[in-house]
Amino acid sequence: MLRLGTRASVLARTQSGQVAAAVTALTGMPCELVPIRSEGDDTRIPLDAPPRPGAFVATLRDALLEDRVDLVVHSYKDLPSAPVPGLVVAAVPERAPAEDVLVAREGLTLAQLPVGARVGTSSPRRSAALLRWRPDLVIVPVRGNIDTRISLAHNGTVDAVVLALAGLHRVGRAAEATEVFALTDLVPAPAQGALAVECRSDSPLAATLAALDHLPSRLEVVAERAVLEGIEAACTTAVGARATWSPQRLDLVAEISDHRGVGYASRYAVVDLPASDPVESRATAYELGCAVADALLQGTP
Q: Quick check: is 185 in a domain?
């Protein structure tokens, strides 16, 4: 029996259950979900001031290191950029859509929201993008699971909320989005829509789980997270990065707001990938992200 650690939310259990089924199909071993409450589940703590960096993942990683579980599943965008000694992201399954969406009262789009509309998000990245388009908006910090945040728009607490499309897809609520933002309009968080399957680096399971790795998705998140590392992002940094894989090519767009003296900057780059060489392709993807990060820090849009 394999023990898969997961947060207890509906979204976390849903995506962990999907990975558990894939692991069982791969290994022939039952995979039991082990719900673990994290510090980030304490709704009294503001999202922009967590008790530890990566509050949603730190407790899961502790459980791995203490051998209370054999593997864990994270929303990859929640992982801090710094690796944890003794742990490895053994697989990145095929990525879900990376876009952000608006869920608004009365089916409204962003352009249709009234002047001074209240939009709920605790993401500095989303807040910065929204205010670039609509300086009249009032950004309202919100947190909680998908149900909680959508209910805020439906009950009139706010006029709309911004969420990740991937999460809505995974819990079967994508139809409730009233607008899907184009990737070029609202650049997603690095690794948004991707999952990270993590285990101990000295575990035989690491090599087994590698069979679940989806190389195009892996290359995309390697490039995007290299941007995080390159700009020395904190959990409150307004940064977006989206890489798009196509055979023998990787495109990357990234932007930052109010970071290290840069008011706003956006950069795009593309690189050819080595044919049939996953290791070299990863290195190329990483170098692409680093180069874009350097360009962002030079400033100017």
A: no
Q: According to the model, what pLDDT value does residue 164 have?
A: 97
Q: Phi and psi dihedrals of 247, rounded to 5?
A: -50, 120
Does 41 qualify as catalytic in the annotation?
Answer: no
Phi, psi dihedrals of residue 50, rounded to the nearest 5°: -70, 155
Cβ neighbourhood burial of 297 (10 Å; 0-12, 13-18, 19+): middle
Residue 63's domain is classified under what CATH number?
3.40.190.10
Per the structure, the count of domains in the chain is 3
Establish whether 3 is a catalytic residue.
no
- 216 vs 38: CA distance, rounded Å: 30
C-alpha to C-alpha distance for 265 and 262, rounded to whole angstroms: 7
What's the pTM?
0.92
Domain that holds residue 115: 100-180
Q: Is 125 a catalytic residue?
A: yes
Q: Is residue 293, in this structure, part of any structural domain at all?
A: yes
Strands 138-140 and 118-120: parallel
Judge whether 146 and 176 are in contact, CB under 8 Å.
no
Predicted pLDDT at 39? 54
pLDDT at 46 over 60: no
Among 134, 143, 173, 282, the one annotated catalytic: 143
